[in-house]
């Protein structure tokens, strides 16, 4: 097979592992800097160019689109889909996952556990939003944030109100969520591939940080998840339409709640914590399921 990986940084651990796993199985792999792909949008003849040269035919594309280039990255992925290239995750599904508000609404409609979440446009409704989220402390999140950036803990009603009003004054969209105190600064990353849970780890934040992101100084360890947590992760992946994703859960007093569904999960932390060949599992899934033109949306939607 000939596989393309859409990624800006070819040297990241996750991307190198995917290349190694694919080449070990005899596949040809190209890492394409997403921002250097040019699109020729022509009726009946969609084409893509890379550094000025027309791209050949690929059997599959692995989108590793950074949050900061979501708009252009999805446009490139849609072009590949229109050209009949099978995507590991489809553009529409990635778009859902990148919109925090939309993803929360989709998961809520499916009846999945979520932290109480409030959203409003008018800064005058700040008091109502804080009250809806259960009162201080509350977690305030930028809709466009990722990897813990743009996530603030409002420990008191006064501080929460100040942060919310500051963000809204800058015309930035935010979500306000209840703070799950009983989680104790830890969360669970469940990795789903092809409708199966293949690995899970517990992430613990740094001593002075309520966020558990590994790149912010957190640590990870192997964990055995409950049947309810497994079911929640699988249902979340299915509802979002993602073949591969990381589902981030918190253990609350009323069961597992979903913090985020990540369409481009990092592999380094979970491979090292679990000792599993996650990259190999992803390539195996591609081998078993990729077919030319087999894309539900074909670039639509």
Description:
With 301 residues, the chain is α+β, with helices and mostly antiparallel strands. It folds into 3 domains: 2-95 and 285-289, 3-Layer(aba) Sandwich (Rossmann fold), CATH 3.40.50.20; 117-179, ATP-grasp fold, A domain (Dna Ligase, domain 1); 182-276, 2-Layer Sandwich (D-amino Acid Aminotransferase, Chain A, domain 1), CATH 3.30.470. Helix content is 32%, strand content 27%. It has 9 helices and 16 strands. It has helices spanning 13-24, 70-82, 91-98, 100-109, 126-132, 157-169, 227-240, 268-274, 278-289; strands spanning 2-6, 28-32, 37-40, 47-50, 53-54, 60-63, 86-87, 117-118, 138-142, 151-154, 174-178, 186-193, 196-204, 219-222, 244-252, 255-262. The strands form 4 sheets. Strands 14-13-12-15-16 form a 5-stranded antiparallel sheet, with helices on both faces. A 4-stranded parallel sheet has the order 2-1-6-7, sandwiched between helices. Helix 1 (13-24) links the parallel strand 1 (2-6) and strand 2 (28-32). The two termini are 28 Å apart. The model has no long low-confidence stretch (mean pLDDT 90). Residues 104-287 form the ATP-grasp domain. Mg(2+) 1 binds at residues 248, 260. Mn(2+) 2 binds at residues 260, 262. Keywords: ATP-binding, Ligase, Magnesium, Manganese, Metal-binding, Nucleotide-binding, Protein biosynthesis, Ribonucleoprotein, Ribosomal protein. Mn(2+) 1 binds at residues 248, 260.
